[in-house]
Amino acid sequence: MTAVAEALENATDRVESHLNPPASYDLADHPVPTGREEVWRFTPLKRLRGILDGEASDAHLKWDTTLPVGVTLTEITAEQARELELPPNERPAALSAELSGGAILLDVPAETVVAEPVVLRLTGSSVDDLVWGRVLYRVGAHAEVTLVLVHEGSARYSAIQTFLVGDGAQVNVLTLQDWDDDAVHLGRDAIRVGRDASVKHTSISFGGDLVRMHANVEYAGPGGEAELLGLYFADEGQHLEHRLFADHNAPKTKSHVVYKGALQGEKAHTVWIGNVLIRKVAEGIETYEENRNLVLTDGCQADSVPNLEIETGEIEGAGHASATARFDDEQLFYLRSRGVSEKEAQRLVVHGFFNDLIRKVGIPSIEEKLLETVEAELAKNVLKELV
What we know:
Layout: H1 3-14, E1 62-66, E2 72-76, H2 78-84, H3 91-99, E3 103-108, E4 118-139, E5 144-165, E6 170-177, E7 184-193, E8 198-205, E9 210-219, E10 225-234, E11 239-248, E12 254-263, E13 269-278, E14 286-295, E15 301-310, E16 317-325, H4 329-336, H5 342-358, H6 364-380
Parallel strand pairs: 3-4, 4-5, 5-6, 5-7, 6-8, 7-9, 8-10, 9-11, 10-12, 11-13, 12-14, 13-15, 14-16
Antiparallel strand pairs: 1-4, 2-3
Helix pairs in contact: 4-5, 5-6
């Protein structure tokens, strides 16, 4: 073991984050939550419909795949998955590992440049189906690939996903939660960024009754960069929750987080929890996390909690920002003064709020679809009754 690798391992063993429990496959280490725990206090447990009880199930989602040349998708055993994946650190992910019966491995060989996006479309048929998912994505050194994961239909779905990004690789991941109104989705995306590698991870949630997504990042060596983007739009009664954890366990690494959400309708609820841990070994790192929420109607609630845990002062920069607000009166006044109707002015402000983030996705076909979806969400309610 090299001196750097030994230092990284020792640093990881000594420090734990209060918002990121230790990893373990033992379900006894992940008891059924009561709702009083810090990591569960925002989640309406009764609406999880028994997922946390851990009932075995043979149900599956339907998979439709677009695999460019050079990309393979194979089934592996649970034992093989354990040798590769990042272990679970929460009960839903541990249950998924325990009950999935195996795993799916997507492989992109080293040095491979995949010109077209890899698209995995996962569709559920009924909310009565309880589905346990376990998927690994292995991208070889200096490879380049875009991965698009689309969730739709209806199910109760709990999944653990691991992204292993080789040294010098460039990976763009987009996961879209576009479920039917009754679906429940608990997901954990664990990402290991190789030396001098670059990862963009975008999580987008529109559909579902309750969606709770995690994106966890750690580094396999110096020089890795991670950009974590998110967009969500909650309607009446929806609960959309996104949790981020960037573990700077290597020097000269970077993370940049930007999540934006809008809420409309009675009891629409969004939760964003961002956490960055800067370990003693992580000198020279840069990190910033930002969350913005736009409240469009009365009766909504947006919870936003950024966190920084810093073990060393030898860093390039670290910061965070969080804001929840209604429409900007100055923007509306500017548009109205130039002859734009009130309803059109409000629509333009919402599009402007999301537009810069959507343009960062880096997948033109998806960017256009997102703009259309935002327009459809606005047509449901907000353009009829805006604050």
